[in-house]
Structure formats: structure tokens, C-alpha cells
Amino acid sequence: MITGAVLLMTGCSAEDVTREVTPRDAVAISFSCNQEEEITRGAHQGAMNIEDLYATGFGVFASVSAEKKPDLMYNQEVAFTFVGDMDNPLKGYWSYYPVKYWPVSITNLFISAYAPYVELPIANPETTTGIYGISANTATPYVEYRRCEKPESMVDLLWYFEDIDTIPEPSGRQKGTLNMKMRHALARLAINVALATPPTSGTKVLIDSIALTGKMAKTGRLSLSSQKTDTVIENEKEIVKYYPVWSEQTYDEDEGGEINHTIIIDNDDNNAESYGIIDSQVRYIEGLPYAWQPAGLTTTAQNALSTGDRQTYIYLIPQENWSVTVQVDYKTWGSGAAEPTSGTKTVTTQANLKGNTPYVLNITLSGI
Q1: Pairing outcome for strands 158-164 and 177-184
Q2: Could you tell me the residue range of the domain that residue 286 belongs to?
Q3: 226 vs 83, which has greater pLDDT?
Q4: Is there a single domain that holds both residue 306 and residue 158?
């Protein structure tokens, strides 16, 4: 069962594509940045967190026109500078150049951003995974994203959008600093595997591969000029949920014209058809290799894409009526057995994949 758990050029000068605006009290536009979901790098490899943002920076679009065309900032890189010490190594500040100022009239001021920052022009956009395209400076802003197949190389994508109606007031920061809350634009899928019953002592389990087959968007366009909201009740409180707006999805087609695709994750480094490794730290017990064995090998579900103490995910472009068949091929060794027994588990599930939403696919292996 799958369930949703309730993630250019370095700035353009005014002579290029942006226009100067008359500053009001010469208040500079500055940024601070955090995330809706605070996570640690070690526990969630592949999911962008604030430390990743420090390393990659983010790109900003700003407009003073009703059409939301980026006439104030276009793919402006905002980078983080570390000034920390032993007590606070992550201390630092965000900056960009050339500096822009809050305009006299901000009736139509729109600011949006994405991360990780990508410099233009993008090399090899036809084959690049992750962000492979950015809107022109004469269009409302968007980024184009291509699905990646390797869990350990998947690019998480963050977005921010807001209509600004006043200069931010000081609140522990310099006046004019916009506190941007970045949100995850993709659907994040974790695959958990558990045993139906406790195994006998000495049993070992190796997952050879996990294959996902179904209609999965290959590319999509993330809007940076709009977003969706929904109000839900959590713990007896109203909470506003934010969702990205995606369009222009494309899909793979097989020879029969069916829209279908298979993502294969297996344990073989040298398999040309393999897209990833379930656990690259292959260990040996009594000469038998195994790539997935939870501590104690219990019936508790554990992430099948983990490597050591790290955890990875499959990132998918949001889409409606997502249907996928998941096949798990595995081997088991009984206590002292020299040869394994092969097994296969297949499940089919369906969901509406939303951005900024984590999903979990729980698979139970029986007969062990």
C-alpha cells in the first residue's frame, strides 16, 4: 500500500535585461533562506536541506510588472558566505551582485526562487538530468526538470514564490531582508521492505533488484510565478499546505505506443542496465554477500535504498493517476545454507502524486 505522509550568468546588469527602480530610503533587497522541512544531511541523503543550500545557492527572479516578467532580477545567483567559527561553523550570510533596491511602488512586486542554482547556459540540455532548462528573460519564470534514474544521484528541487506588498520589517535581521521559505517541488518516494514473520536464526536476505514500471513523467515544467494552497486540519489546528504548479509533462513511449517506463535499482555496479545500488557497502558473513539486512533482521519495515546509515529516495515529477507495478527480486539463505533460494514479490498501487509531499511504499516479503 502506498500512502502519503502527513521536499546564466551570475546576475544580469541593468544594461542587460533588468531595469533600475528608484529606491525608497535606499533599502537594499536582501535574503535569508530556510526550509519548510528541517532535516539533517546524514539522515536524508538526496533530500536538499539548509546545508545543501549553503553549498549550491539559489536563483532569484523578481518583477515589478503585472506580467511577472523578470525585469528586476533574472536568474540572479544568491550565494552563501561562511564566517563561522568552532562554536558556530555554519554562521554566514547570503549575498548577490549587483545589489537591487526595494522600489517606490511595490503594487506588482513578485519574487520567486529555485534551488539548486544553475548557471546559464546549461551544458547538454538534451541529456542533463535535474534542471535542464530555464525560462527566457522575457517570459514569466519557470524551470524545466528531467527525471533522474539513480537514487544516489537524484536532484531534489526547491521552489519559492510570493507576492510582496511591503518592505520586510526588521526582526532580528536588517530591514529589507526577505525571509524565504523554500519548499520541495517533487514527490519523494521511500521504499520500505519488511519480513512478514520473524526469520529463523542465521537467515540472510539479499535484495537483487527493485523495479518500478508504470507511467512516469520524464520531464516537466515547474512554475515560478504561481503555486497552489490548501487548508487542512492537523492536531486540531488549521495549517496551510503549499503545492507547486507543474505543466508540460512528457512521457516515455515503448515500441507499441504505450506510455510506460521502468526504473531498475539493483546491486550490480557493472550492470549497464542498472540505475543504482541498493547498498554499495556490500558486506560478507560466512562468505555470503548480502546488500540488505536490517539489524536483527526483524519484521520492522526499513528503507531498502539505504547505504549504511544514509537514506535515499526516488524523486518523481508530480502527476495525476500515477499507477506503478513494483517487483522485488530477492534471495534468502537459511542458516548454514550454501545456495540461496530465489523469490519475487510483485505489488501494484496507484496514487495522485503531489509535489512537496513524501510517500512511502511498504513491501512485505513472506515465506522467509
Answers
A1: antiparallel
A2: 190-216+252-365
A3: 226
A4: no
Q: Which residues contact residue 78 at a Cβ distance below 8 angstroms, ignoring those fewer than 6 apart?
A: 31, 33, 57, 58, 59, 60, 94, 95, 96, 113, 117
Average pLDDT of span 69-94 = 86
**Residue 28 and residue 100 in contact, taking contact as beta carbons nearer than 8 Å:** yes
Question: What angle (nearest 5°) sits at the alpha carbon of residue 136, between those of residues 184 and 77?
Answer: 55
Are residues 180 and 198 both part of a single domain? no
Looking at the structure of the chain, the number of domains it has is 2
User: Residue 234: is its pLDDT beyond 60?
Assistant: yes
Q: What integer pLDDT is reported at residue 67 of this predicted model?
A: 86
Q: Structure pTM? A: 0.79
Any idea what DSSP says for residue 259?
Answer: B
Q: 178 and 294 share a domain?
A: no
Grid cell 503585472 in the structure block, residue: 66
Contact present, 180 and 60 (Cβ < 8 Å): no
**Running DSSP on this structure, what letter comes out for residue 276?**
-
Asked if residue 27 belongs to a domain, the reply is yes
- Three-class DSSP category at 151: helix
Q: Are residues 154 and 206 in the same domain?
A: no
